[in-house]
Amino acid sequence: MKSKAIWLLAYGMLVVVLPSHSHGNSPGTYEIEVDDLADWEQTYGHSDTLALRKVAGDGQDATRIAPSGAAGEALVYKTKGNLRSFAVQTHGRAAAGSGGLQFLISADGKSYRNVTPDVHEAPGQSPTVTYASRGFPLGTKYLKIAFAGGAGPEIGQVVLNDAAGIEASKPSGAVLYGSMILLTPKKEGEAVYYTTDGSDPRTSKTRKLYGSPIPIADDTVLKTTSANPASGPAKATDGISTYSYTPYPLAAPPKGIDDKLDDFGLTAVRANVYTATDNPAYYGGDGRRAVRATLGRGCSFTRPITT
Length: 307
Known about the structure:
Elements lengths: L1 H16 L15 E3 L9 E2 L4 E4 L8 E4 L7 E5 L6 E7 L9 E6 L5 E4 L2 E5 L5 E7 L7 E6 L6 E7 L12 E4 L2 E3 L9 E5 L12 E2 L4 E3 L3 E8 L12 E9 L18 E5 L1 E5 L10 E5 L6 E4 L5
Parallel strand pairs: 13-19
Antiparallel strand pairs: 1-12, 2-5, 3-4, 5-11, 6-10, 6-12, 7-8, 7-11, 9-10, 9-19, 14-17, 15-16, 15-18, 18-19, 20-23, 21-22
């Protein structure tokens, strides 16, 4: 009996000491998963029309997922624990009108919601674009990558839950009105240039050198690039990251009413009151006041604010 109690105590201590990520399905756990697309084993499901294409001379993405152009093509990943972020590397450009890729997340694999990804572009004749997003609700487990039809880009390496460095403090998507976006260079000591009008931050005349947080008050397409100060401003060979933000509420809160009482133009209803004028202005600068005309009751009502 004594030895059994000792074993139970030892087991209990192991459960407490073991890190939480050893329990893959426990709440709040994340495990980095990398799919180099050697086969379909790491995908949860995929359209039969998608193909794995071998690419000679590409050390990182030797195999890519190639769409056929059929409607409704997609692949799905299911994480071992929770899904908090993804990074999907793609190659080539989407054909005009094809719409490119769509990214959706889900907790149950049935009900999906669309995600607006950050877009990181690496220059070259065969462009490499990485789509990434992060900060998903606890319990998210599924990532669906859908091809919008037509000749879309090919998909290379897919990384789930990677804790890679982040350049913008908030991911693309809906943000609270007035949110401040902080930018961090990908390499320590680099300068960050940005634009908010959709122009190229490497060459645009409207680009700015980042020095303070960027407020989001309207729909904003924030494009950034970084460069070594010793080599001068960013060059066309440097990559670009794009973040798209939509503030909510979509407009600033309505302003209140400041009635100087020059007349009753801002009131909706008044009864038995008139405007009195003092000169000089007493009462802390209130030179005009609404005053009761008789001993009867008097009142005035301001017009309601309409939007």
